[in-house]
Every structure is written in C-alpha cells, then in structure tokens.
What does this fold into?
Amino acid sequence: MTKTEKYDRGPNGDLYCSPTLCGLGCTRAHYEKVKAKAQKLCARLGPAWKPNVHENLGWHYSASLGDVTVHESKHGCTAMYNGPSQFIGDDKDPRRAVVKAYAAAEKAVALQMAANAVVRKALLSVPRLPAPVGVLRA
Ligand SMILES: [Zn+2]
It folds into this structure.
C-alpha cells in the first residue's frame, strides 16, 4: 500500500484517513482545511515557522520553530517550549503566546540563578569541605 492509497479511500475517494493511524473517517476537505489553518498560523508567526499537520482521531495542526510549538484551538493559542523543562504561554494571539512562554522560561532561569546563589553561599560556608572539581573557582 502506498502512502497515497493509505489516505485516498472511500467510494468517491473523499476519505482521507489512515485506517491504521486513525480510522475516524476523516475527509480530504477537512485535511485541506486544517492544512490551510496551519499555513495561516505560520503566516501570523513569521517566515521561520513551519506548519505541522498530523492525524490522530481527526486532523490537527500546529506551527513550530525549533523546540517551540504553537497549537491553536477555539479557546486560543498555546505556545510550548519542550526542552529540559517545559514552558507554556497561552493567549488569543499566537505571537503573544510565544512571548508568554519565553517570559515563563526567563522567570524560571532567574529563579534558578537565585537558587544557585543560595546553594553556592551555603557550600562556601561549609568548613574544610573541598569544592567539587570544576564548579567553584577563586
Ligand atoms: Zn482520520
């Protein structure tokens, strides 16, 4: 079965649904509508953003740039950065959602740096305990 055969099915060829990945009976019209929404979302975010369209009990879309993905729903947009930690921003405007995710990451970095300073101070106050190699200098 070729990739096209897997999707183009139905009596009139109007089904566009993977029987193994989905099976919901998605239509080509819905796929095209979702694909257009993904492209529209990318147009709002900027030329570096790439559209993602995937099938999982229906067709879904998002836009991504590196490890940042923006999902859009009738409730608004959610920007997610999935790195060593996950940072999320929600807003009606996808650009503001990205800004909010970035602000959450910046806040976490500031909190971590403050925690590092506290731990460093505690570590330096411990008498006769050698610092871990490569961590503390001068
Ligand atoms: Zn489907």
Summary: The chain has a mean pLDDT of 89. The chain has two domains: 1-46+53-61, 66-126. Residues 17, 22, 24, 26, 55 surround zinc ion (CB under 6 Å). Helices lie at 3-7, 28-45, 94-125.
